[in-house]
Design goal:
Largest sheet: 5 strands, mixed
Oligomer: single chain
Strand content: 25-35%
Structural class: alpha+beta
Shape: flat
Radius of gyration: 20 Å
Amino acid sequence: MGGSVSGLRRDVVMAGKRFPWVWVESVPWATGTVLTRGTVDGLPLLTWGRAPREKLATRRQLRARGLRPGGADPVAVLYVKHRASGRRNFASLYLVSAAKPVRPMTPARWAALDKANRARRSRRYTQYRHAA
């Protein structure tokens, strides 16, 4: 069931390793076969634009929706290469259906966050003052 995919490159080269297009039979977010770039650390590798946004999300995307992974392991890895800089980025993808709501901030958590931010700001100020 391999074959070529129209409009898509044949291989992705990362750190000297090629990731050709591969059909994967069983993935947690879909039934049937899914086109991936192989596997990385045992997880399916997806390129930008190939991950279903309604079913998979990164940590930041989950947070924007008011969700968190909730201890769930990633189900896939997203690969993005920036054309201008040539940088390669990898991001873990989590199932949106398995995500849990973000825990509300308690007064104790607000106080701890405020204390940490004040300490960080005062440390930065002293670093700049001594550098000048």
